[in-house]
Design a protein that fits this description.
The protein has 174 residues and is of the alpha/beta class. Helix content is 56%, strand content 13%. It is globular.
């Protein structure tokens, strides 16, 4: 697997991109980068605050610029934000620069995993409906970008990281 030096995890919020990504990077001897965490570190404020100040458009602009930068780094597993795939340029960067892994999760699982977080897109009277709307828009993009797809419903992060590593190897993705 030494030919795979850039792995990009995509999928909805709560799919496990950060948790599984850390374990996958460790397993493969790669560095782990969380796109949202990097945005927060560089701006000095959390994602919710960026949404409050700049709106989703401003946040997406920052996200796209940083994704362009980070997808060029070798030796990394990058956990993207759920909406990072919305920008066509970001889609190109992801598909051209590494192996894209789509982590799938059901809405109920997403709700359970995100219930104690401040996710700007879940500021809604009905977060389940909002997640359903988001996946209806984003699933075709995730699927089109994916070299590998993994269902994160059943399995611990360690086992899922192992499955991803095996699937990447089996796919012959470069």
């Amino acid at each position: 697997m030494n030919h795979v030096d850039r792995i990009f995890l995509v999928g909805p919020m709560g799919a496990g991109k950060s948790t599984i990504g850390r374990r996958l990077a460790e397993r493969l001897g790669l560095s782990f980068i969380d796109l949202d965490q990097t945005i927060e570190t560089r701006t000095g404020v959390d994602i919710a605050r960026i949404f409050d100040i700049e709106g989703e458009t401003g946040f997406r602009r920052r996200e796209s610029a940083l994704l362009d930068e980070l997808t060029q780094l070798k030796g990394t597993v990058l956990a993207t934000g759920g909406g990072a795939i919305l920008d066509p340029k970001s889609q190109q960067h992801l598909s051209a620069r590494g192996v894209v892994v789509y982590l799938r999760a059901q809405v109920a699982t997403q709700l359970a995993r995100t219930r104690n977080s401040d996710r700007p897109l879940l500021r809604s009277d009905n977060p389940a409906n909002r997640l359903t709307e988001l996946i209806e828009i984003r699933d075709p993009i995730y699927t089109a970008l994916a070299d590998v797809e993994i269902d994160t419903e059943n399995g611990n992060p360690e086992r899922l990281a192992e499955q991803i590593a095996e699937r990447i190897q089996q796919s012959g993705a470069h």
